[in-house]
C-alpha cells in the first residue's frame, strides 16, 4: 500500500495517546466496584455512561467520519476475535480489528482491545470510519488502554476529571 493511502485514526482523536505527551487530564469511571482512571489526550472530551466512559472529539456527531471510544468492563465474549497481542504479563493487551464496507463516510472499522486492570477485565472499543484502502493504527488505542489505573470505589461518581 502506498504510504499516502494509509489513514490513521482521526488525528485529533488519538494522536496524543502515545505516552504522556499531549495528556492534559484524566477521567474516572466507576465500573462495578472499581474506579478506573484513564488518561485523556488533549482535544478530547470524556463523558460518563452507565458502567463506563465515552471519549471523543467535541461535536463528533457533526463530522463526516465520527469516531468514538468506549471504556467498559469486558463482559462475556468479545463481539470480534481478539487475535492479536501487545505487551506481556500484567501489561498484556489482546485486540482485534473488524472492517465492514461502508457508505459515503467510508468503511466502518471496529477495534476492540482488552486487558486486566487488577481483577477487572477492561474493554476499550473504537468505532470509526476510514476511506477505501485506509487502515487504522492500533497503537494509540493500546496506549490509552495501557494508561488505565484501577482502585477500589469509595462512593465516587462517574465522569470526566
Characterize the structure shown.
The structure is a single chain. The chain is mainly beta and 161 residues long. 7% of the residues lie in helices and 47% in strands. The chain contains 2 helices and 11 strands; from the N terminus they run αβββββββββαββ. The strands form 2 sheets. The chain has a 7-stranded antiparallel β-sheet with strand order 3-4-5-9-8-7-6, with helices on one face. Strands 10-2-1-11 form a 4-stranded antiparallel β-sheet, with helices on one face. It is globular. Mean pLDDT is 78; it is low at 1-20 and 156-161.
User: Order of helices and strands, N to C?
Assistant: HEEEEEEEEEHEE
Number of strands: 11
Strand order of the largest sheet: 3-4-5-9-8-7-6
Q: Compute the average pLDDT.
A: 78
Summarize this entry quickly.
The protein has 161 residues and is mainly β. It has helices at residues 11-14, 139-146, and strands at residues 23-31, 34-41, 45-49, 52-56, 68-73, 84-86, 93-103, 106-117, 120-130, 149-152, 159-160. The longest helix has 8 residues, at 139-146.
Amino acid at each position: 500500500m502506498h504510504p499516502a493511502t494509509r489513514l490513521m485514526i482521526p488525528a485529533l482523536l488519538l494522536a496524543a495517546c502515545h505516552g504522556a505527551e499531549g495528556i492534559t487530564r484524566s477521567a474516572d469511571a466507576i465500573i462495578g466496584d472499581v474506579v478506573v482512571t484513564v488518561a485523556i489526550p488533549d482535544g478530547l472530551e470524556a463523558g460518563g455512561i452507565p458502567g463506563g466512559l465515552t471519549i471523543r472529539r467535541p461535536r463528533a456527531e457533526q463530522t463526516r467520519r465520527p469516531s468514538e471510544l468506549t471504556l467498559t468492563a469486558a463482559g462475556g465474549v468479545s463481539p470480534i476475535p481478539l487475535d492479536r497481542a501487545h505487551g506481556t504479563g500484567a501489561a498484556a493487551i489482546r485486540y482485534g480489528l473488524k472492517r465492514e464496507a461502508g457508505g459515503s463516510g467510508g468503511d466502518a472499522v471496529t477495534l476492540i482491545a482488552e486487558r486486566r486492570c487488577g481483577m477487572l477485565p477492561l474493554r476499550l472499543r473504537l468505532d470509526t470510519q476510514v476511506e477505501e484502502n485506509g487502515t487504522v493504527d492500533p497503537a494509540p488505542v493500546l496506549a490509552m488502554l495501557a494508561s488505565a489505573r484501577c482502585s477500589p470505589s469509595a462512593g465516587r461518581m462517574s465522569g470526566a476529571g
